[in-house]
Write a structure and sequence with these properties.
The complex is a heterodimer.
Chain A (H helix, E strand, L loop, with lengths): L1 H22 L6 H15 L8 H9 L1 H10 L1 H8 L3 H32 L7
Helix pairs in contact in A: 1-2, 1-3
Chain B lengths: L1 H5 L4 H20 L6 H15 L4 H13 L1 H7 L1 H6 L1 H6 L1 H26 L3 H7 L6 H10 L4 H25 L5 H23 L1 H25 L5
The chains are: A mainly alpha, B mainly alpha.
C-alpha cells in the first residue's frame, strides 16, 4: 500500500505541474515546476519526506534508464546532423569541459574563501 | 522482425533494461570511465536495431514507458535536495555565483566556438541552450529560431560526455569540494550528468539536481540576450 500512496502523490504533483505549464507560456518543462512544488511541500512540512521517499529513491536510482529511448533516437536525427558532425564532435567536449571547469572552480573558490573567513558552511 | 516488434508491448523495455544491465556488468568488470553503462547500452541497442533491421519508431513505441517516467523522476529530485537543504541554505552565494558563472561561460563558449567552427546563425542559437536539461533546451532553441531536434541531440550527447568524464574533469581542475563538484556537473551536463553525481554521493547529487533547475532557469533568461549577437 505504501508504494501506491507514494506514487499517487508523485503522480499528482506531476499532473499539477502540467496544469501550471499549460497556463504559463514559458519554455520551462512541467518537470521543473513539479520539482519546485515538491520542494515547497517538503520544506513547508505539508508533505513529510517519508511519505514519498521509497518511490522517489527508486525512481532516482533507475533514472539513467529513462534517457535511453531518447538517445537511441539520435539514429533518426542523424541525417540532420551529418554535415556538421565533425565540428560537433569538437564542439561538445570542449564546451562541456569549459563549463564544468569554470562553474566548479568558481564555486570552490568561494567555498574556500568562506571557510577561511570562518563562515560555517560545513555539511 | 519489424512485424513482431511492432505488436510487442515489452520489446523496447526488455532490450533497454537488458542492455543497461549488461553495461553495468561491463563497467563493474573493467572500471573504466569509457565503459559508462548509459553509453554502452545505447551502442548495444543501436547495433541491435541496425542488425535486426528494426525501425526506431517500433522500438520507441514500447520503450516509451521509460521516457514516461522521466517527469515523475525529475519531480523526485526534490527529495535529495530537501535532505541537503541545510547545505544549500549555507551555500546560497556559492550556488548563485557558481551557477551564474557556469551559465555565462556556457553561452560565451558557444558564441566563440560558433565563430571559430564557422557555424551558421541558426546553428548558433540551436547550440546556445546545450548545457541545460533536454526539455528546457529544446524549447529555448525553437523559441530562438533554432532546430529543436538538433538541440536535443547535442544536449543529450553533452550529458553523456559530462556523465562519462565528470570524474576526470574534476580531477584535472582539482575540484574536490563536494558542493562544487555537484554544481559543476549539473550545470554542464544536466540530468544525465546528475545521474553520475548521485553515484558520487548525496551532497554531489543534491547540488547537481539543484544546478539543473537553477541553471535551466538562468539560461531561459540569458539565452535570448546572447542570441542577439550574430555569428
Amino acid at each position: 500500500m505504501r508504494y501506491i500512496f507514494e506514487f499517487c502523490i508523485i503522480a499528482a504533483i506531476s499532473f499539477v505541474a502540467e496544469v501550471i505549464k499549460y497556463f504559463l507560456p514559458l519554455p520551462v518543462p512541467a518537470s521543473i515546476y513539479g520539482l519546485i512544488i515538491m520542494l515547497i511541500l517538503l520544506i513547508s512540512g505539508v508533505l513529510k519526506v517519508e511519505k514519498v521517499s521509497a518511490v522517489a529513491d527508486f525512481l532516482i536510482k533507475i533514472m539513467p534508464l529513462m534517457f535511453i529511448p531518447a538517445v537511441v533516437g539520435l539514429v533518426e536525427s542523424y541525417t540532420a546532423i551529418k554535415p556538421i558532425v565533425i565540428r560537433l564532435i569538437i564542439f561538445v567536449p570542449v564546451s562541456t569541459v569549459v563549463v564544468m571547469g569554470v562553474c566548479g572552480r568558481v564555486a570552490q573558490a568561494i567555498r574556500t574563501r568562506q571557510k577561511r573567513q570562518g563562515v560555517d558552511i560545513d555539511e | 522482425m519489424n512485424d513482431l516488434v511492432q505488436h510487442s508491448a515489452y520489446f523496447g523495455v526488455v532490450i533497454s533494461v537488458a542492455a543497461y544491465a549488461l553495461g553495468i556488468l561491463i563497467k563493474k568488470k573493467f572500471k573504466l570511465a569509457i565503459f559508462n553503462p548509459l553509453f554502452l547500452s545505447i551502442i548495444f541497442i543501436i547495433a541491435f536495431l541496425l542488425a535486426g533491421d528494426i525501425e526506431y519508431a517500433n522500438y520507441e513505441k514500447s520503450a516509451n514507458l521509460l521516457s514516461y517516467l522521466l517527469t515523475p523522476a525529475t519531480v523526485c529530485l526534490a527529495v535529495p535536495l530537501y535532505r541537503q537543504i541545510e547545505v544549500l541554505k549555507k551555500n546560497k552565494l556559492v550556488v548563485l555565483l557558481g551557477l551564474g558563472s557556469g551559465v555565462v561561460s556556457s553561452l560565451v563558449t558557444v558564441f566563440i566556438l560558433s565563430i571559430l567552427l564557422g557555424f551558421s546563425n541558426e546553428m548558433f542559437v540551436t547550440l546556445l541552450p546545450k548545457s541545460v536539461t533536454t526539455a528546457i533546451g529544446m524549447e529555448v532553441a525553437s523559441e530562438l529560431g533554432g532546430d529543436s531536434t538538433i538541440a536535443a541531440a547535442v544536449i543529450i550527447v553533452t550529458g553523456i560526455v559530462g556523465n562519462m568524464s565528470a570524474d576526470i574533469i574534476c580531477r584535472v581542475f582539482r575540484i574536490k569540494d563536494p558542493v562544487a563538484i555537484g554544481l559543476a556537473v549539473g550545470c554542464s551536463s544536466h540530468a544525465v550528468g546528475t545521474a553520475r553525481a548521485l553515484e558520487m554521493g548525496e551532497v554531489q547529487g543534491a547540488m547537481s539536481s539543484l544546478a539543473v533547475a537553477v541553471s535551466g532557469i538562468m539560461t531561459v533568461i540569458l539565452a535570448p540576450l546572447f542570441s542577439m549577437l550574430s555569428v
